[in-house]
Amino acid sequence: MDRSSVLGRLLERDSYIDHQTILKYEESPSDESISGPRRHWLHDRMCAARLPLEPFIIKLIKSSIESSFSPWRPARVIPEGEIYALYSSMLTIEAKHVLMLYYIILFNERAYSDRKMISIQAPFSDSLANVIPIKSILGFAERHDGGKSFKLIFPHLASMVATQFLELWDSERFLDEEDLNLLATHDTTILAKDGITEVQPWKVLYHYEGELRALLSGFLSNPDVSLSEKRTFRRLWAHIGYTCPRELWMFTARVLCPGQGITQDSLINDPIQVLDCNTRVFDSDVLTRVLLETLRSFMLVSRYRIKRTLLNSSNPALSSQPQRENTEYALLSLQETEIIQRLLDICYQYRERESSVAIIYKFLHQLFINNPTYIKLVHFQGYRIELIKDTVKNIPSMHVCLDFVTELLKQPDEYHQSFGIHLMAQLAATYPIAKSLQILQDSVFHKIRSMTLRFLDYHEGQEPVSFETINSIIPTLSVIWQAFPFLQESITSVLKDLDEQIKSSKLKSRFKIYKVLNQTFQKISNPAEAAVRASQH
After folding, report:
1. For the chain, how many structural domains are there in total?
2. Which of 69, 151, 204, 456 is the most buried (most CB within 10 A)?
3. Where are the alpha helices (DSSP H) in 185-244?
4. What is the 3-state secondary structure of 297-317?
5. What is the pTM of this model?
6. CB 11 within 8 A of CB 4
């Protein structure tokens, strides 16, 4: 009997098989006569695995995956239908569920390791993540028997999940301290309904859908809910998010963004759709936080999809890693700065809703911390000048603007120069440090002078400056003076220069500017008012 036949007999026997014999044949070139039985046997071996795991089963899984990507005769993989069946019947987590997750994640990692692999075997679909309680399984593997049961695979498994499911392993989750405590104590949290331990993990959202929908709808109609209702919602949100996060995000998006026709795939491809929500969301700090958590999660999934798509692209222009990285950065920065701009618009539009806007600023701060280059991109794109004071005050990472504000002031157009002056004035007010002082003395004062002169004495070929711009930049001198009172002489000198320019001008609108100039003079020269303003600042 040939070796393939012997292996086929061994694999189909429902009894103990010598580990060394199996490894010997698994590491040999395979043929199609045994690929079917091997797949079925591997599935059964995972289902029958005992704890602590033996090295053999891990090596067997790895060998099976490698043989699945053989360029000659690849072995068949475990069908997704069998995987769905395994998890859909799960009541409690067992070793087989951890091993099957390890198999799926390791298989996908191999598939995405080289674009040639995709042509041999397609990776498992993203939809599997909707039925596999990945976080629950990871928690089980980490804690079972003090971590001893799965020590052979847990570090590798956790690392792969962190790569393939960024949204599940996000160290910067946008949750407050109470939410984090709820997640940390998930296993001992007692929910309002009885029988939670009997609910299959993939059915948790279905089990609590009515209660969750009622809470979300209640917050929309009445944002001033009691603390107990907020806590009930947070406990429920933490529990469902721990078990089936993707389903929770999709459910939340559909409740908060009705009539948008969104799908999970469309939100992954274009996460900004999450912000096309019911405007009453921003009446509630709870809903604002939930919306941003949902947005952040889809942003993370989108990042991985973009990275994966570029890696597997057959476009010759993306053949090298630097080319892929540059394209990935360009795509992500375009997508995510658009989201930031939309959030800034929301902050301005709903500026009276202070608690919700404060949450959005905190979210923007996290985005800037994780992607510092976005700060420069967003400020060169620009946004409402009226919002600059609030962004500098409420986003701590805005101090980074001191590194590039001089570049803004050097831009040839009126908008960027005006934006830069307002930005630097507020930075000086918030960060009255030596670097701010240097920029004011070297760049800002000169820029205010030159822009005013261009307005008063415009010549063809110059970049024009509007009255509205001059009317807005002169008062910034009083803001600067409050930050650096000892600059009173320098600021007064600037104002006197402007006064002379205005007097010698023949423009009719010069009298309006003169009024603003006098008001700024009075603010700086009135000690009583200055003291009050300084104490308020």
Report:
1. 3
2. 204
3. 204-221, 227-243
4. HHHHHHHHHHHHHHHCCCCHH
5. 0.80
6. no
H or E stretch covering 487: none
The answer to whether residues 424 and 441 touch, using CB atoms and an 8 Å cutoff, is no
- Chain centroid to Cα 521, Å, comes to 46
Residue linked to tokens 């939930």: 290
Torsion (CA) 288, 290, 296, 297 in degrees, nearest 10:
-160
Q: Are residues 155 and 180 in the same domain?
A: no
Residue 284 resides in a domain:
yes
φ/ψ region of 326 (left if φ > 0, alpha if ψ in -120 to 50, else beta) reads alpha
Rg of the chain (C-alpha set): 31
Q: Do 143 and 197 fall into the same domain? A: no
Same structural domain for residues 131 and 217? no
- CA dist., res. 179 & res. 185, Å (int): 10
Residue 288 lies in a domain: yes
State CA 439 to chain mean position distance. Answer: 33
pLDDT tens, per residue, the chain with 537 residues: 444 444 444 444 433 344 444 445 545 544 443 344 444 567 878 888 888 998 888 888 888 788 777 776 666 678 888 888 888 888 788 999 999 999 999 998 888 776 666 656 777 887 787 788 888 888 889 888 888 899 999 999 988 888 888 777 654 454 444 444 444 444 434 444 433 444 566 677 778 888 888 888 888 888 777 888 888 888 888 888 877 888 888 999 999 988 778 888 899 999 999 999 999 999 999 999 999 999 999 999 898 888 888 877 767 777 777 888 888 899 999 999 999 999 999 999 999 999 999 999 999 999 999 999 999 999 999 999 999 999 999 999 999 999 999 999 999 999 999 999 999 999 999 999 999 999 999 999 999 999 988 888 765 556 678 889 999 999 999 999 999 999 999 999 999 888 888 888 777 767 778 888 888 888 887 555 445 444 544
DSSP secondary structure string for all residues of 178-200: HHHHHHHTGGGPPPSSS-GGGS-
Query: Same domain, yes or no, for 119 and 179?
Result: no
Same domain for 275 and 177:
yes
Do residue 19 and residue 151 come from a single domain? Answer: yes
My answer on whether 151 and 177 are in the same domain is: no
**Within a domain: 527:** yes
Domain assignment present for residue 106? The answer is yes
181 shares a domain with 143: no
Q: Are 238 and 183 in contact (CB under 8 A)?
A: yes
Q: Which of 148, 164, 180 is the last residue of a domain?
A: 164
- Write down the residue that tokens 């593997």 correspond to: 141
